[in-house]
Amino acid sequence: MKEIFFNPKKTLNVGGSLLSLHTPIVMGILNATPDSFFAQSRVQNEEAILQRAQTMIAEGAAILDLGGYSTRPNAPEVSEQEELQRVIWVVELLKSNFPQVPISIDTFRASVAQSAVAKGATIINDISGGQMDDKMFETIAQLQLPYILTHTRGTPQNMMQLTNYENFIKEILDYFEIRISRLYQLGVKDIILDLGFGFAKTIEQNFELLGKLEVFKMFNLPLLVGVSRKSMVYKTLNCTADESLNGTTVLHTAALLQGASILRVHDVREAKEAIILCEKLNLHNRFLNVIN
Q1: Which of 109, 153, 230, 272 is catalytic?
Q2: Which residue range forms the structural domain that includes residue 84?
Q3: Which residue, among 36, 22, 26, 120, has the nearest Cα to 78 in the 3D structure?
Q4: Cys-Cys link to 150, which of 194, 203, 228, 267 (CB 3.0-4.6 A)?
Q5: Active-site residue, 109 included
Q6: What pTM was estimated for this model as a whole?
Q7: Annotation says 86 is catalytic
């Protein structure tokens, strides 16, 4: 197989500061929702938020990812006003207590993104890839912040009925090519690709996608992998989300060995350890290639 040249950007401009991706980094998940699939990621009060954020930062999280709209399959609708009420005060709280740590706002709504950025968020994580709000791409261009572009189909309410593809990998590549081109035309400079594990994909498709992660290096953009405690892990292992940490770490390792730049996770320490060990292995392999 022909080797794919991979030379993605190694830094992101996050609110005027450079965030290095020379070594893969960890994005820690904070859910300001009552119904996210992994209960321990939910934070509902100031004390719980600060405690969880502090723990993740101490364990090595480089980014905190905050969401107020659960995007698990069949999640209930949440109004724009309710989403704003859930997340804006949390952005302010995190910014005032951890000003050095970039905050990513997990939303598909341009208005929520704008409001969160006004309070201190510096990355936009849009699980819809601009499909659920036609103002999102223009908003990203105006804000000039890193944008996480995710592959999906439909909405959280119907995406698992939209898993039929004629050519699975090619259709995802085409999806990204169209949207990346549009974002570049608008002047967006920092794009991160999230292949959307669990979004409009069966378990078998998720594994096919993970096994072909290197194909997406063709875009020369950082790859974010979000498989933490998802059904592709716990259903395959016939366990629960609470019991899926070990399986998650295995898949994180597979992603890192294929060039993932960001791991979006519930368990920061374990993800950080996977990064350290994989980087050690990569360094060893590069040394062997030089002397041979």
Answers
A1: 230
A2: 11-291
A3: 36
A4: 194
A5: no
A6: 0.92
A7: no
